[in-house]
Amino acid sequence: MASEARYPDIEVYLAQASQDALNDWLGDTLAAAPLAPAGKGKWRTRGRLGDNEIPVLLVERAADGYASLWFDSPHTPWESDAACARAAAARLACEVRCSLGGWQPGDDPDRFLRVLPDGSEAQIYWPDSGH
């Protein structure tokens, strides 16, 4: 059975997702406990999928008002950042951004996929403002 290689980790950027909604989604999807403070503007939890533990990190205001949500595991329910972004946008009712794919040298690091709660998607240019 051929399939694309799973990403070694998943990272998406959330616009204005409520922490309650995020905790509900992480609990339903990964049986994760609610996010707990882990330093200034950082929150952590751990989820599980089967026998695999999945560390989760939320960093508030990581990029231009977006929070970074990082799953540090290849064992997530999503094979790619885009798959996670689609699920998050639908469940959290907020805009979600992610990289277009596995980044390779020479790729434009400022090209992203934007997914809206209604399921519409677009490639966007989202330069790092350096904040």
Please explain how this structure is put together.
With 131 residues, the chain is α+β, with helices and mostly antiparallel strands. It contains two helices and eight strands, in the order E-H-E-E-E-E-H-E-E-E. The chain has helices spanning 19-30, 81-92; strands at residues 10-14, 36-37, 42-49, 52-63, 66-71, 96-99, 111-115, 121-125. The chain has an eight-stranded antiparallel beta sheet, with helices on one face. It is globular and about 35 Å long.
Relevant terms:
131 residues; alpha+beta; 8-stranded antiparallel beta sheet; 8 strands; 36% strand; globular
Short recap of the structure:
By secondary structure, the protein is of the alpha+beta class.
Summed over residues and divided by their number, the pLDDT gives a mean of 89
Instruction: Give the topology string: H per helix, E per strand.
Output: EHEEEEHEEE
Gyration radius over CA? 14 Å
Overall spatial form: globular
Distance between the termini: 43 Å
Question: Poorly predicted ranges (pLDDT <50, ≥5 residues)?
Answer: none
Strand content: 35-45%
Query: Which structural class should the secondary elements be placed in?
Result: alpha+beta
* Physical arrangement of strands within the biggest beta sheet: 2-3-4-5-1-6-7-8
Number of helical segments with 4 or more residues: 2
Q: Into which percent range does the helicity of residues fall?
A: 10-25%
Biggest sheet record: 8 strands, antiparallel
| Total strands | 8
